[in-house]
Write a structure and sequence with these properties.
The structure is a single chain. The chain is α/β, with parallel strands linked by helices. 30% of the residues lie in helices and 22% in strands. The two termini are 55 Å apart.
């Protein structure tokens, strides 16, 4: 009996140690997915593991201090410095420095310079610097040396020719001349105020750049993006100061002949000049419909502003002749609708998929938008209605149906409506689409299932807020009886397409 127990114990220990029997290259690959504070704990496993981590090709210094620990710059400094001192690797594929939780990084500036130099010397291929920052004081102008508490990466980073992917969040650059990032394929910059000259220098020094993500503070400045290598461009412009007005005089210029995907979000540019985007197939326009002010809450653009921005949207659409997929926010939909009243938009015959955020009470405006896409195959409507939205205006709806052309929406095959509010407006939308889409194959109505969506609408009247929070806590669940009622009503609706399948998904 004892012999049997001993053999079983030996067998179990061998099974437990199978990880150590794996090839070292595979073990290092597995460890590369862990944070350094977890990696160093593996030194306790066995003699073989004691120094294994020192040859890791990926060094991830994120969440260096656990949530239960006290934030201490000396602890951060000592941990990273000791880890780099013991590192004996031959190749550095990835290097991550992430310090969050309102940590004062200014006390680590000198050490961080050494860490970046360490990465550059060891020919890092992917570098991520993610720091807690105050967006209001970010400034990466080449002559701005007094930005308080904002870390500025050393100039040696500009000569890192091995780097292929660079992500900078809350970190300024010193760019006095074009960098030599000849291998760089992906660049993310988050939180910068900038000059056209500085962006031009960066783009001139990145001849192979394919992905450029730029998130910046509105500073009433122009932006000029010119690159023959870019394939994906994301621009997010936002306001920091609550009393700041967005400028309608700012200009966005894009000349990227090989650009395939374009995403523009945040505050509007007053004018957009796209001189060459002939390869563009995917376009997302996710603009703010209002600007927050501390004294009066959301301050919407006035009539003149909406008209100017509608013109901007019209010009952008005129350059989207090869685009196949379009995504629009509810505010972009509003601007287009204002301009489309005058039939300013030319049709985009190549668009086959459209996703749009829309208030379901605005059926007439929605159909005006769809007239721009005569060959649309798939339509995704994401309801932005509030909890107690009014229904569709019956008078306008009747007049609108009378003037509707018979060929409208003839090509639509798949429609998806995403909503948390199953009211008369939503049913009117479904009824209308089923009646007029004669080639429809599938119409899906499903819940958002998004607590985030509910919570982000917390600017509603206080009387609605309690209801909002309750729904957010319990999700978008419906009672079985209510679900059955909705499903039966959808299935009873007449449809012009005999092959149309109607699906209600409450989960």
């Amino acid at each position: 009996m004892d012999d049997y127990m001993m053999e079983e114990s030996v067998g179990s220990s061998e099974q437990l140690d199978r990880l150590s029997e794996l090839p070292q290259s595979l073990i290092l690959h597995i460890l590369s997915f862990l944070r350094m504070r977890d990696v160093v704990k593996t030194t306790l496993l066995s003699k073989r593991w004691e120094n294994l981590w020192t040859t890791l090709p990926c060094l991830n210094f994120s969440d260096i201090i656990s949530e239960d620990d006290e934030l201490d710059s000396n602890r951060v400094r000592n941990f990273v410095n000791r880890a780099l001192l013991f590192w004996k690797g031959t190749k550095l594929l990835k290097f991550i420095i992430e310090i969050r939780d309102h940590f004062d990084t200014s006390s680590l500036a000198g050490d961080m310079d050494l860490w970046v130099r360490f990465a550059v010397i060891n020919k890092v291929e992917e570098l991520n610097i993610l720091l807690e920052y105050d967006e209001g004081v970010l400034d990466c102008e080449e002559d701005a040396g007094s930005s308080k508490d904002i870390y500025r990466a050393p100039e040696c980073l500009n000569s890192c020719s091995s780097i292929r992917k660079l992500s900078l969040v809350g970190c300024n650059l010193r760019v006095r001349k074009s960098p030599t990032w000849n291998q760089l394929k992906s660049l993310q910059i988050n939180g910068f105020s900038f000059s056209e000259r500085l962006i031009n220098r960066i783009l001139l020094g990145t001849p192979r750049l394919e992905v450029f993500e730029l998130s910046l503070v509105e500073s009433n400045k122009n932006l000029n993006i010119r690159s023959t290598s870019l394939k994906k461009l994301k621009i997010n412009k936002y306001l920091y100061f609550v009393d700041e007005q967005p400028s309608l005089d700012s200009i966005l210029r894009i000349c990227c002949p090989n650009l395939e995907t374009l995403e523009i979000s945040g505050v509007y540019y007053g004018k957009c000049l796209f001189t060459n985007v002939s390869s563009l197939t995917d376009a997302t326009l996710d603009f703010y419909d209002s600007v927050y002010h501390k004294d009066c809450g959301s301050n919407y653009y006035d009539a003149r502003g909406i008209e100017l921005l509608g013109e901007t949207m019209r010009y952008m659409f005129s350059t989207f002749q090869h685009v196949e997929r379009v995504a629009l926010s509810s505010s972009s939909f509003q601007m287009i609708g204002a301009a489309q009243k005058k039939n300013l938009f030319s049709p985009l015959p190549n668009v086959v998929l459209l996703k749009v955020g829309v208030h379901l009470i605005k059926l007439v405006e929605m159909v005006r938008l769809l007239e721009i896409f005569p060959n649309l195959k798939m339509l995704i409507l994401e309801d932005q209605s509030r909890l107690r939205s009014r229904g569709i205006n019956a008078e306008n709806y009747s007049e609108f149906k009378t003037n509707l052309t018979k060929s409208f929406m003839l090509q639509l095959k798949i429609i998806e409506i995403i909503s948390d509010f199953y009211n008369s407006s939503m049913f009117r939308y479904v009824e209308f689409l089923l009646k007029h889409c004669s080639m429809l194959e599938k119409l899906v109505v499903r819940a958002k299932r998004s607590t985030e969506f509910l919570l982000k609408h917390s600017t509603m009247l206080e009387s609605m807020l309690e209801e909002l929070v309750v729904r957010a806590k319990r999700g978008t669940s419906l009672s079985p009886v209510r679900s059955l009622e909705i499903a039966e009503r959808l299935l009873r609706m007449p449809r012009s397409s005999p092959n149309a399948e109607v699906i209600f998904n409450k989960n």
